[in-house]
Amino acid sequence: MNLILFGPPGVGKGTQAEHLRDNYALHHISTGDILRAAVKAGTPLGTEAKRYMDSGALVPDEVIIGLVEEVLEKDKQENKGFLLDGFPRTEEQAKALDNIFHKLQIADVIIISLDAPEEELVERLIKRGQESGRSDDTEETIRRRLVVYHDQTSPVLGYYKKGRKVKEINGLGKVEEITDRIKNAVGS
User: Fold this and answer.
1) How much is the mean pLDDT over the chain?
2) Which residue among 76, 80, 89, 164 is the active-site one?
3) Domain segments of the chain as ranges
4) Which is catalytic among the residues 80, 128, 164, 183?
């Protein structure tokens, strides 16, 4: 099984990713994690990414996409299913990811789209900020991130609805209830 977990900030992607990873023995792929691992390993793409990171610049799409391709290729060789969390964030990234899937002959990818009302997302993120001490979880910053999500990332869902299986899941309720909804949607 191969999954892409999609949804706005605060909808519970990280929490659900942990449950799905464990339930289905999937390789949880977070672009932040693979960037840090590639930098630590000193791979050619990791070295290139480090130059951007050290200067405070965003790592360009082509570097991130190259790193994702390396990980997906390794997973395919090891016959592992994957769970992409937080990627793709733009339609251009989604198209590049589709090219990788085509190149690696990965056809069975299910998109899980979690959603919840905006006020619920804001409340969750403010609470997370209070509990974890994350300084970026202020109401002003959260609302800006939601605007960016709606402007740049939510169009990816429309792109996916044209050619892939998209399972839309209500992100309200207890963690276990949401996990059960996802499991029912993707089957065992």
Assistant:
1) 90
2) 89
3) 2-180
4) 128
Distant-in-sequence contacts of 140-146, Cβ < 8 A, 24+ apart? 142/9, 142/10, 145/9, 146/8, 146/9, 146/118, 146/121, 146/122
144 is catalytic: no
pLDDT of 111 strictly over 90 = yes
Report residue 54 as tokens. Answer: 């050290």
User: Could you report the per-residue pLDDT of 35-77, keeping only the tens digit for each?
Assistant: 888 889 999 988 988 888 777 666 888 988 999 999 999 999 9
The active-site residue, picked from 21, 124, 145, 181, is 145
CATH 3.40.50.300 correct for 2-180: yes
- The yes-or-no answer on residue 134 being catalytic is yes
Prediction pTM value: 0.85
Catalytic residue among 40, 95, 103, 134: 134
